[in-house]
Design goal:
- The protein has 260 residues and is an alpha+beta fold.
- It has one domain: q2cbj1_9rhob like domain (Jelly Rolls, Sandwich), CATH 2.60.120.620.
- 25% of the residues lie in helices and 18% in strands.
- The chain contains 7 helices and 9 strands; from the N terminus they run H-E-H-E-H-H-E-E-E-H-E-E-E-E-H-H.
- It has a 6-stranded antiparallel beta sheet with strand order 1-7-4-9-3-2. The protein has a 3-stranded antiparallel beta sheet with strand order 6-5-8, with no helix packed on it.
Length: 260
């Protein structure tokens, strides 16, 4: 299980004041926050090793890999999706009906180039100007090792989420800065905040986990109902079932046409 410092808020581990400050930083401040020490270094290293083992069977493109289906691979990956502090921020921003739009690992092998400046889904699938309310997506980036400029720390343009527009390359280059952190830290960001992955100048693979939380009415990037381990899904916690749209599962009853 992920190591969490519990308190009277049911495991969130921060005061209401601090939580509200972090939420406001995401909404109207720089557009993201870094929460340190959410995972122990030992747990982060264990999960990193598991991801790299799973990546052996995944396609590789330009020294980058994505690993999907992690929720069904090991319970500790599923635990991260509803980690109290991260989940509390996402829920307060998106509302109680939020869903999980995607959850995967991102591996930047040595020499990997940047992905390209972007906003997160569903915004990149829309035409600007983007709506500022309601917020449609919040992303959590789990650092499974120390992130720095050398190994491809994510790069964010502070305050760009308030522009509600597609990224401007010149403005991004002028204002963006890398977001570093120690293994076990989490970056939580507004889906409209312009960002990119840095280049990995090292010879070591840099591993992160990406959780995409969306409003209920957004079509998810990943459909967790299909190609899944049905037993794992049936035995999931109520919160995880909700996030995975378990209550949306197809009916086993016959489907009849609307006419005869």
């Amino acid at each position: 299980m992920a190591r969490v410092i519990t308190d009277s808020m049911g495991g969130v581990g921060v005061s209401v004041t601090e939580l509200n400050q972090q939420i406001q930083e995401i909404l109207s401040g720089v557009g993201y926050v870094v929460i340190p020490d959410v995972l122990s270094p030992e747990m982060a290293e264990e999960m990193r090793s598991q991801v790299l083992e799973l990546a052996r069977d995944c396609p590789r493109e330009e020294n980058r890999q994505r690993v999907y289906g992690l929720i069904y691979r090991h319970p500790q990956f599923a635990d991260l999706v509803e980690q109290p502090h991260v989940f509390a921020i996402a829920r307060e921003i998106l509302g109680a009906s939020l869903r999980l739009g995607g959850f995967s690992a991102h591996v930047l092998h040595g020499g990997a180039s940047s992905m390209g400046i972007h906003v997160d889904y569903p915004y990149w699938a829309m035409e600007p100007p983007f709506p500022d309310r309601p917020v449609l997506e919040v992303q959590a980036i789990w650092m499974l090792e120390d992130f720095d400029e050398a190994n491809g720390a994510p790069i964010f343009a502070p305050g760009s989420q308030t522009l509600c527009d597609k990224p401007d390359v010149k403005r991004f280059d002028r204002t963006a800065r890398p977001v570093s952190g120690q293994a076990g830290s989490v970056v939580i960001s507004h889906g409209l905040c312009w960002h990119d992955t840095g280049k990995n100048y090292t010879s070591k693979s840099r591993v992160s986990l990406l959780a995409n939380y969306t409003a209920k009415f957004i079509q998810p990037l990943e459909d967790f109902r299909y190609g899944c381990d049905r037993q794992v899904l049936d035995q999931a916690s109520p919160t995880l079932k909700h996030l995975l749209r378990y209550d949306f599962k197809p009916s086993t009853d016959p489907i009849y046409p609307l006419w005869e």
